[in-house]
Amino acid sequence: MSLVSSVYTVQSVSQDGMGKLRITEKGLKLEGASEFLEPLYAKEIQSKPGRPLFLQSSRNVSVNIVNSKNQLLTQLVTGSSGFKAKGKLFEVKSTSGKLLFSADEQEVVVGAERLRVMGAEGAVFSKSVETPHVRAEPFKELRLESPTRSLLMEAPKGIQILAEAGDIQAICRNELRLESKDGE
Predict the structure, then answer these.
(1) CA gap 128, 134 in Å, rounded
(2) What pLDDT digit, counting tens, does each position of 146-158 carry?
(3) Can you tell me the distance from the alpha carbon of 23 to that of 25, in angstroms, rounded to the nearest whole number?
């Protein structure tokens, strides 16, 4: 003897749609929480005006942009391991449209008025650094050092080292050389 139990859900089906799914002039309108068991493909997804759009997943939420050949062009993945973005260009702008940060294969641009490095060890650069101004936070010490190689500062119009409220100190293991090629 076998016992089969079936559960049926009755949806309200009408010419306007089925259950919480409504057919409108602009497309489909889904009211309330819904679960998608397969990927969702849509031209546009938006919430009601003034209401947040909430996406939830037990693994991750992925947004993929593909071309007509279904090749991945851009990808945005948020999950328990972090936030990842793939693409030719990544930009962060302020609400007024000012570029704050951008990155592509050639360069990374920080467009904010000031770049602050908060790490206790400062910033480490494997190649050269080009900037018109280097300064420490107010009442903090500025150190330029190269523990294993040489430290070279050069500029076509000169270098100015100024300590308005303290001393300037240069320390080296072997010899300290200040050289002027054309001047005194």
Answers:
(1) 14
(2) 877 788 888 888 8
(3) 7
Distance CA 167, CA 165 (A): 7
The residues with which 30 forms a beta bridge, in sequence order, are 21
Between CA 31 and CA 22 the distance in angstroms is 8
Phi and psi at residue 152, to the nearest 5°: -125, 130
Least confident of 24-33, 83-92, 122-131: 24-33
What's the distance, Cα to Cα, between the start and end of the chain in Å? 109
Q: Residue 137: CA atoms inside 13 Å, Cβ hemisphere, count?
A: 6
- The CA–CA distances, whole Å, from 124 to 145, 146, 147 equal 10, 10, 11
State the Cα angle at 100 between 96 and 105, rounded to 5°.
135
pTM of the model: 0.59
Can you give the pLDDT at residue 49?
85
Whether 29 contacts 21, CB under 8 Å = yes
**Tokens (6 digits) for 164:** 């308005």
In this model, does residue 84 exceed pLDDT 50?
yes
Q: Does 9 score more than 70 pLDDT?
A: no
Token pair, residue 132, equals 């018109």
